[in-house]
């Protein structure tokens, strides 16, 4: 399950960083705030979302250390994250984490008091007081205007020192992010496609053991 946690952690870091804001903890760029607020507001208008993404890891020399691809589904409080060999199902009440290599699923109950991250939160106005942000400017990629926002953690003990977030100016959606670790490693998260009007059946968010023959179930509820 460590592989899943690592992969999802960087997915969450990448996406949540785009919406991180720090209130009264230094000077933030008001132009960057306008963009972040607009991205958040736009996402709230979507009833169901399906997005395909890729996660690339590079070392300080630029060598590719690995690439993962996956899909995230979101509807109301439900979500499902599928990444190479691993999946997370959330039906709004329980979270089932499945590790394909071990053919093992761990089921836990959602703790409403835990204030935990979910894909919905990190795509909307999830306010994190650990970052400062600024707008670096605009560039054109494949004919699209892309705005680059740079975030830096206030807590210097964090394993990364910078996050670059790229927002499609026209659609007000995140196109990619890049996390820079102190070790020199870089994690690039790219949204390859996004359907903001997806028809998603609620069964998608339920882990069905019968679909995974021989699966070991660890029920921690």
Q: What is the number of domains?
A: 1
- Beginning-to-end CA distance, first to last residue: 18 Å
Strand arrangement, largest sheet?
Answer: 7-8-9-10-11-1-2-3-4-5-6-12
The residue ranges in which pLDDT falls below 50 over 5 or more consecutive positions are 1-25, 124-128
**Helix share, percent:** 10-25%
| Helix-strand makeup class | alpha+beta
What does the average pLDDT come to? 81
Describe this structure in words.
This protein has helices at 2-19, 30-43, 119-123, and strands at residues 48-58, 64-75, 78-83, 86-90, 94-99, 104-109, 131-141, 144-153, 160-168, 173-181, 186-195, 216-219. The chain is α+β, with helices and mostly antiparallel strands. The chain has a 12-stranded mixed beta sheet, with helices on one face. The two termini are 18 Å apart. The chain has 3 helices and 12 strands; from the N terminus they run H-H-E-E-E-E-E-E-H-E-E-E-E-E-E. The chain has one domain (2-219): Lipoprotein localisation LolA/LolB/LppX (outer membrane lipoprotein receptor (LolB), chain A). 17% of the residues lie in helices and 45% in strands.
Structure described in brief:
This protein has 221 residues and is an alpha+beta fold. It contains 3 helices and 12 strands, in the order ααββββββαββββββ.
Primary descriptors:
221 residues, alpha+beta, outer membrane lipoprotein receptor (LolB), chain A, twelve-stranded mixed β-sheet, 3 helices, disordered N terminus
Which SSEs are present, and which pair or pack?
Layout: H1 2-19, H2 30-43, E1 48-58, E2 64-75, E3 78-83, E4 86-90, E5 94-99, E6 104-109, H3 119-123, E7 131-141, E8 144-153, E9 160-168, E10 173-181, E11 186-195, E12 216-219
Parallel strand pairs: 6-12
Antiparallel strand pairs: 1-2, 1-11, 2-3, 3-4, 4-5, 5-6, 7-8, 8-9, 9-10, 10-11
